[in-house]
Amino acid sequence: MGFSTASAKSVALPAGKERSRRWFRLKKVLLPHLVLSSLGLVFLFPFIWLLLSSLKTPAEIFQFPPTIWPKDPQWGNFVRAFEAMPFSRYTMNTLFLCAVNIIGQLISAPLVAYSLAKIEWKGRKYIFAIIIATMILPPQVTMIPVYIIYAQLGWVNTYLPLTIGAFFGSSFNIFLLRQFMMGIPRELSEAARIDGASELRIFFQIIYPLLKAPLTAIAIFTFVGVWNDFMGPLIYLNDDSLWTISLGLQGFQSEHGAQWELLMAAAAVFTLPTVLIYFIGQKKFMEAGAAMTSFK
Amino acid sequence: MKRLLALMTTVCLVAVAGLSGCSPSEGTGGGKRTEIDFWYTWMGDGSTSMKKLIDEFNRSQDEVYVNGLAQGDLRKQMTAIVGGNPPDLASLPDEINLASWADKGAMMPLDAYIKKDGYDMEDYLPAARDAVTYEGKTYGLPLGMNTWMLYYNKDLLKKAGFDRPPETIQELKKYEAKLSEEKNGRITRLGLWPGQIPHVWMQSFEGRLWDPEAKKVTPLDPGFKSAVELTSSVWQKHGPEKIDRLLAGNGNYGSPQNPFATGKYAMTLDGEWLAPILGKNAPKLNYDVAPLPYDENHPEAKNAGYINVNLLYIPKKADEPEAAWKFMSWLAKKEQMVKFDKALGNLPPRKSAMDDPAFKDVPKFDRFLKYANSEKMEPLPSLPFMEKYMQEIHKQNDQINRGKVPVEKGLKDVETKIQPLVEKTMK
Amino acid sequence: MAQKSLAMRRKRRDFWMGLAFAFPFIAGFLFLTVIPFFQSLYFSFTEYDIFTEAKWVGLDNYTRIFQDENFYKALSNTFFMAFIAVPVSITVSLLIALLLNMKVKGIAFYRTVYYLPTVIPGVASSLLWLWILNPEMGILNTALRAVGLPDPAWLSDPAFTKPSLIIMGLFGTGGGALIYLAALQGIPREFYEAASIDGANAWHKFKCIVLPALSPVTLFQLIMGLIGAFQIFTEAFILSQDNLGGPDQSMLFYAVYLYNEAFVNLNMGYASALAWVLFVIVMLITLVIFKSSLRWVYYGGE
């Protein structure tokens, strides 16, 4: 910051045009970059620290004062973390849950949204009101009876409780799609209706292809949500052969306590897939984030 | 979008393929093998030793196949039992929850199996057998027994001018004051780490937590109160802020960074399992163990102490209780018990196992065994509200340590909270 | 005549079609919301541990709640997060959105960076912060000590556990910033130009154009943030490492307490009553915010 005050003084000097242009560049280009990149570094830091810590030896981890850069990168930490728990299995399980949930949401949410946005029927106002209401309903209110119902059905320790909800469509996604569909001109579907097309055909051939952007957003949000979910698997999954990575990582923590270098290696392994997906599809992520504004 | 869908479908298919056909029991002999899930609470080295024993069992016969899982979180065990889909066999690190869980019907009584097999329960120490008994029924098999002694760093004591361990609480306090060191507002050495569970100290003051005649909880018992005051005095003296910081900076317990191994604690209250850990991670450490010091005003409390047992139990609604019994009864037999307790440095709760030569090279084993066999050793009473009682004590103790609540009031609160539970659960 | 019956038929057909398309939601709503909703109301008047039949106890659970110090502790901890942490993180996300709205080269790259922490899974980031905030060995305190600042014990000191959670939360503000950013970019240029002509300075523009234009998004973030605060679970579960909410129960949050009562202590009836109290609280808060929003949320011409 001292930098900019120094330049402010220099601009006060009676100087030529060249100089004031340089000041302008400084103010308009350099300063924003300085602010953005230093704050950006702060935002990146935890992730970088995760990677650096995962490469240290147990002695180095507890060295005082701590070293920034690992002296002798211990790639073996990753191997040890992998050996200590079946990460690939947990990853597969988690991906499976993600995939099923995404499929469920991509089928059901658009159907319901279509009913609310494009079919004029008596009950739709009520359904819409209910959808808004359920968004505010704390899940704890229904959690206990739902758990008991699943337990009586013998579904505890299966993936059913963690996937079936997606096939009913989440309120949030239905809302998002309904808002989006309201923006699709009525004439499009009406014309097809006059031609005698069935609702299903209108839905699949005319409306569904237009939903690319919001559906991608939903797929991404569902992926991140399921990947991160901890409470659901915690309550419903017992066998470690069914565990997701969240559960596995928590189990790893309770087994390996203060072995920070291993914990960090395990956490890094857990984090990398989302970060990779994020970098590959970052444009979609941004669009997904923006899609939320349809809320107003 | 299409590509995304295609990708998802592929992932989905791969995952389905991955999920089926990975059953561990496949390809082991022809006949049908009963598979059981076993959740154990041992972590680190304990987990490694347990895995070895499970492998041994699986290789030794072809009727039962055990899937072991290290699961340290007791919350998870209860959730699974409630969900009606518990493991077939599980372990508990101590017997505190046994009465509560047995009372709720979360555990299966083992008496029928014991009778059918003629399983030798007489070989167990009476205290260990009592610990797993609730209302006349046996709910678990103890695998190891624990007791706590005072570990002291000989070199540090010597430097401070002490050539023997403290014998009384009064001496202990003197030692503690002299051995503690602070520099620049942080603790560089703690004279005594008193542990987090005050009832371990209770016997040193002849304290008790339960009055069986009056059917009353007695957290205000002067002996227990003194124990709480002893542990909280360390917090008060240095200030909770500094102690928190010290604890958070501790390295892994089972590593060379263990605070007693590094000399961060000059004396510490710890169990017999620490000795093998020190032997492995700090072979040069010059230390010894001593019976817990006793209060001068209670000379009878000399050599008194606290013991507990860990145990195996079959949760209610387990799918394969027979197979679970088969494995657990094998595991709690003398040979296996010796192997496991030797690896962990735990004391065997079987009389026949105690003198086993295998324990010869376990550091300090004889000292702990002798101490544990003292008549004045006492476990906590087996009561259905014990879990809540201990939770409440733990909570209030935290408040007392932090100076937020005076001892008297904190313990009084425990009484008002727990006594109604007594009336409710004791018919 | 024919016209009318055609319209009637169309209406009836639309009704059934609408119902059919909405069926997934209706079915889910019935089985996973309506039935459990009333069941949980029933349980809240019983003593129920799953192993034995539910026993009717009338209002017992509710009277017990209001004498339960853990309840008050959990509620005040949760309120702290709802009314301090949420506004702080909304403010920060707005500031970041303003930063990211600058017209400089490579802004897309910065956006990527600022959003990155939000994709780190909860369990992993909790473990990571446990390490960063370690009072002795943690990098944050090492840095603070190096520049001579006080170094709190963070997650071990009851006074600093919730501030620690707020700091952790700030790294997730990239998500909220993105939503604000999209709304910022939707403000027509003419607004600013008109204001400039009127001689408004940057602060005036922000106060009179930006804030009102963003107010619907603020309302959305506020409500979602508050609801989220009542669901705080993963971080507290991992960071406190005991059933009691860590040092001095400073991380005993409502959702954690409810989970413990239900699934650890098996007080399903009591936990259901806790859930209903939560329901009423959340409803009241939402209602108050909606009512007040009529005064501060500006819905544009659209």
Automatic annotation (TrEMBL), chain A:
It is a multi-pass membrane protein. One of its GO terms (biological process) is transmembrane transport. The keyword ATP-binding does not apply. The chain crosses the membrane at residues 29-52, 94-114, 126-150, 162-181, 202-227, 262-280. PROSITE patterns: ABC_TM1. It is found in: Cell membrane. Keywords: Cell membrane, Membrane, Transmembrane, Transmembrane helix, Transport. It comes from the Bacteria. GO terms for cellular component: plasma membrane. InterPro entries: MetI-like, MetI-like_sf. Residues 91-281 form the ABC transmembrane type-1 domain. Its main location: membrane. Belongs to the binding-protein-dependent transport system permease family. This is Sugar ABC transporter permease. It comes from Marinithermofilum abyssi. The lineage of its organism: Bacteria, Bacillati, Bacillota, Bacilli, Bacillales.
Automatic annotation (TrEMBL), chain B:
Residues 1-17 form the signal peptide. The keyword Signal applies. Gene3D superfamilies: Periplasmic binding protein-like II. InterPro entries: Bact_solute-bd_prot1, SBP. Keywords: Signal. This is Sugar ABC transporter substrate-binding protein.
Automatic annotation (TrEMBL), chain C:
GO terms for biological process: transmembrane transport. Keywords: Cell membrane, Membrane, Transmembrane, Transmembrane helix, Transport. Pfam families: BPD_transp_1. Residues 75-289 form the ABC transmembrane type-1 domain. Coiled coil: none annotated. It is a multi-pass membrane protein. It is found in: Cell membrane. The chain crosses the membrane at residues 15-38, 79-100, 112-132, 165-187, 208-233, 268-290. GO terms for cellular component: plasma membrane. PANTHER family: ABC TRANSPORTER PERMEASE PROTEIN, ABC TRANSPORTER PERMEASE PROTEIN YESP-RELATED. Belongs to the binding-protein-dependent transport system permease family. This is Spermidine/putrescine ABC transporter permease.
